[in-house]
Amino acid sequence: RLKEIISNEGLPIKVIPINFAQKGNKKFKGVVSLMYGEFKENHLEQILLPDDSEMTAQFSIRRYSIESTGQIKIEAKKEMKERGLPSPDRAEAVVMAFYQPPAFQVGGFKGGL
After folding, report:
1. CA dist 31 to 13, 27, 36, 42, Å?
2. Phi, psi of 72 (to 5 degrees)
3. Cβ–Cβ under 8 Å, residues 39 and 95
4. What value does the mean pLDDT of the chain take?
5. To which H or E segment does residue 92 belong?
6. pLDDT band per the 50, 70, 90 thresholds, residue 104
7. Largest CA distance in the chain
8. Is the separation of the CB atoms in 34 and 28 below 8 Å?
9. Structure pTM?
């Protein structure tokens, strides 16, 4: 639907799909862990987030673990639900806004914006 709206309105926006089943990298297990890790390492200190207590809570309560491989793994939404916590939609929207899949990073971009 988003692509349809962009096309109908003639907006200069490129939708970059994220496959949440993707693997991470050597440091982060899974793409969700990778998105959060890269956000923390590369953007958190350089941006000013809105004064939003719900979003702050979502960033603060999600657990992580270190796998036997040494990779960092963010708690799954299913695990959060089992702890009685809501889906971290606002936090995920922020980290997704800053995430650049490898094919779209500088020097590796395939396509136009």
Report:
1. 23, 11, 9, 16
2. -90, 135
3. yes
4. 88
5. helix 89-98
6. low
7. 49
8. yes
9. 0.79
